[in-house]
Specification:
- The protein is α/β, with parallel strands linked by helices and 366 residues long.
- The chain has one domain (82-356): Vaccinia Virus protein VP39 (Rossmann fold, 3-Layer(aba) Sandwich), CATH 3.40.50.150.
- Helices cover 39% and strands 14% of the residues.
- The protein contains 14 helices and seven strands.
- The protein has helices at residues 17-27, 38-48, 64-73, 76-82, 91-102, 108-116, 134-142, 155-167, 206-216, 238-250, 269-275, 286-293, 307-310, 324-342; strands spanning 122-128, 145-152, 175-179, 191-197, 217-228, 295-301, 350-356.
- It has a seven-stranded mixed sheet with strand order 3-2-1-4-5-7-6, with helices on both faces.
- β1, α7 (134-142) and β2 form a beta-alpha-beta unit.
- The longest helix has 19 residues, at 324-342.
- It is globular, with a radius of gyration of 20 Å.
């Protein structure tokens, strides 16, 4: 998810390493978002050291972006789950989000398996960018999927996914996880359930990936999409920024991070590339391209247009602590966001889709 926000322009601010690390911990967790610091801090510290101390990183090396993405995501998942600044770790936000997705307060995957697919079991599932296998172990534990497989660019995440299944006592004929780049996905066989949870907005070659998924999906199979579809590279709209800052000005600084007023800004594209070159690379194109390749059977928007960005700027150590004043602020932002999305004043930045491949012979506009 499950993705990050950049609010500090590192190239113009000379900060100490401790300050950078603290701000990174508070600010860089994504939506469909996750944070591991060491590889990133090395690069950022190199950028903000005095010139004579800098350690340049050679650009343009073959596979450099791929290796950076792999290293980055190998460390994100556990850090994300432990970080209160990540918006979906707030129980109020989590429940509100699930209700937008499914009308139920519980996790969308349980609803999918036991409600939407109450009368259905699956032979083979494939998860695109499976991460550390957190969703995949739920598929296995449900007893509704006979064979679970996944692919991810991060070797570290794949090792964690395999360890999950080994610990659960799964046998080798029940799962398979492989390291691979979904931009060049090679699919082995067909699947009656394919999941993309926060994967597509990290994909450069969306057309190729969606064509591969379409070809791998059985005629009666389903493609499930849980995605960030907001602005590319988190280049938030002027309206988003204006409303977010109006909200911040209306909140007493005591409820904001560090206890002082702050502003919400776009990250620079350069800062996004320095952290994760795949982040939101073509996110605004995800929704129309999925609609072009598949028939959508179920569609729900789950917002995130304000709170995804604002939550890390709040005093998030108070989240999940039963503090009624802080919780009321979160609820009011959730309400405002929902009213603005429903009134078409802001778009939803996230969507939940359940799709099937088009009937044979059905053509899609180019």
């Amino acid at each position: 998810m499950e993705r990050s926000i950049w609010l500090v322009r590192y190239e113009r601010v000379m900060l100490g390493a401790d300050v950078v690390e603290q701000r990174l911990r508070n600010l860089l967790l994504p939506g469909v978002r996750r944070l591991g610091l060491l590889p990133i801090l090395k690069k950022l510290r190199a950028r903000i050291r005095p010139r004579h101390e800098s350690v340049p990183v050679a650009p343009g090396q073959d596979g450099d972006d791929e290796h950076r993405v792999s290293d980055y995501w190998g460390q994100q998942f556990q850090a994300m789950r432990a970080d209160n600044s990540y918006w979906l770790n707030n129980k109020l936000v989590e429940e509100s989000t699930y209700r937008l997705m499914t009308d139920a307060p519980t996790h969308w995957l349980g609803w999918l398996l036991h409600e939407y697919f109450a009368q259905r079991t699956f032979e083979r599932s494939l998860s695109v960018c499976c991460g550390d296998g957190a969703h995949e172990i739920q598929l296995y534990a449900s007893g509704k999927v006979r064979y679970v497989s996944g692919v991810d660019i991060s070797a570290g995440a794949i090792a964690q996914a395999r360890a999950r299944f080994e610990s659960a006592g799964a046998t080798q004929d029940q799962y398979r996880f492989e390291v691979g780049d979904v931009n060049n996905l090679a699919v082995d066989g067909t699947f009656d359930l394919i999941l993309s949870t926060g994967a597509l907005h990290h994909t450069t070659n969306l057309e190729r990936l969606l064509s591969a998924v379409q070809g791998a999906l059985t005629p009666d199979g389903y493609f499930v999409v849980v995605e960030f579809i907001g602005p590319d590279r988190f280049q938030w709209t002027d309206r988003q920024i204006e409303i977010a800052n109006q909200v911040l000005r209306a909140i007493d600084p005591a409820y904001l991070r560090d206890g002082r007023n702050t502003r919400f800004e776009r990250p620079t594209v350069e800062s996004m590339l320095a952290c994760d070159p795949s982040e939101a690379v073509r996110s605004s194109e995800v929704y129309p391209l999925v609609k072009r390749h598949f028939d959508v059977r179920y569609e729900r928007w789950y917002n995130g247009t304000l709170l995804h960005q604002l939550h890390p700027l709040l005093r998030t150590e108070w989240a999940n602590q039963g503090k009624r004043d802080f919780d009321s602020i979160v609820r009011l932002i959730l309400l405002l966001e929902d009213l603005l999305v429903k009134g078409s004043l802001l778009p939803s930045d996230f969507v939940f889709l359940i799709c099937q491949k088009p009937a044979s012979g059905t053509r899609r506009p180019a």
